[in-house]
Amino acid sequence: MITSLDNSLLRLARAVRDGKSQEFIFVEGLRLCEEALRSGLPIEAVIVSNELAQKETAAALLPELSRAAKRVASVSEKLLGSISYTKTPQGIVLLASRPESNQDHFAGGQKENPLIVLMHRINNPVNVGAILRTAEAAGATGAIATENTSDPFSPKSLRGAMGSAFRLPIWYGPTYAAAVGWCSQRGIHTVCADVHAATTYSEIDWARPSALIFGPESSGLSREELAAASEAVRIPMGGAAESLNVAVAAGILLYEAARQRPSEGSVRR
Q: Any bridge partners for residue 116, and if so which?
């Protein structure tokens, strides 16, 4: 049992939580820890509170996590709170190897008719996580997060993705030009979401290989960024609303793409 705030494992956990270590990811809560376990990620350590260890809700999962992890440590609720990312600690933290997110690994996970989400300059990790979760649910084959986008494996993004970041092929860190160029070279039609576009999202062919590009809510994509894509589409809006939350917009476009791809069989109907 760990009793010191300055314990080396707790120091490592705080470093991973704060993004100071890129070797591991910080996973918190029983549900998300189970998702990480089921995904097959190598688990470096499990840190669990004495209180949670006594609860029936954790009885089935903790032995599995203990067998999979290199290190297992029990701590008091107070010590767990010192490493927790949430205001209300959930009783368990897991440190796992960071999933592969390079170009080669991403490319290897693509199907013959890919449907990709490309996130550029989206700085809210909650939105990044929500987009990943929606992308998986809509049958997307992968996601690209450019170097100017929040880390899809940060604690907040992981919480928002609810396990999707462990299963969906992700390419993290390319420049916008490199990501769009990669798609173009492979015949993937790149489509930007833009409030000023003349074409609405339901008017185009989503059944072909496609990449949906989403930029920041505040400023949108620049003229140069829009010009680099194959085309742009808008979502019709009523009232005085000028824009939608980017995760909501992603959901609308992704499900239109899924609707036009009945043969893919990736979305339960």
A: 142, 211
Q: Per this entry, what is the length of the chain?
A: 269
C-alpha–C-alpha distance, residues 227 and 247, integer Å: 23
Which one, of 200, 195, 194, lies nearest residue 213 by Cα?
Answer: 194
8-97: which CATH number, 3.40.190.10, 3.30.1330.30, 3.40.50.300, 3.40.50.150? 3.30.1330.30
CB neighbours of residue 23 within 10 Å: 11
Side-by-side strand order, sheet with 24-28: 24-28, 92-97, 43-49, 69-75
Instruction: Write the pLDDT tens digit of every residue in 172-201.
Output: 999 999 999 999 999 999 999 999 999 999
Percent of the chain with pLDDT over 70: 97
- With 0.90 as the threshold, say if the pTM is over it: yes
Count of alpha carbons within 13 angstroms of residue 171, beta-carbon side: 27
Query: For 45-101, how does the pLDDT look when each residue is reduced to its tens digit (9 = 90+)?
Result: 999 999 999 999 999 999 999 999 999 999 999 999 999 999 888 999 999 999 999
Cα radius of gyration (the chain): 20
Instruction: Give the strand pairing for 24-28 and 142-145.
Output: unpaired
The three-state secondary structure class of 91 is: coil
Tell me which CATH code domain 103-264 carries: 3.40.1280.10
